[in-house]
Write a structure and sequence with these properties.
By secondary structure, the protein is mainly beta. The chain has one domain: Ribosomal Protein L24e, Chain: T (Roll). Helix content is 10%, strand content 44%. One of its GO terms (biological process) is translation. Keywords: Ribonucleoprotein, Ribosomal protein. Belongs to the bacterial ribosomal protein bL28 family.
Length: 63
């Protein structure tokens, strides 16, 4: 199960967490993904979509 959006392909971002004493540790930013039942090629299918794609209307939800 990948942690990426099926519409825009937004995925994990890697970087460093920097403390007040300037010590650096690894950290990960994860996109806000939701499981949504949407119309894909006219048929309802469950896909993982980021909330930015949901808000912008790039996904047509199935009822």
């Amino acid at each position: 199960m990948s942690r990426s959006c099926d519409i825009c392909k937004k995925g994990l971002l890697y970087g460093k967490a920097v403390s007040h004493s300037n010590r650096k540790t690894n950290r990960v930013w994860v996109p806000n993904l939701q499981k949504v039942k949407a119309l894909v090629n006219g048929t309802p299918k469950t896909i993982r979509v980021c909330t930015k794609c949901l808000k912008s209307g790039k996904v047509q939800r199935a009822l």
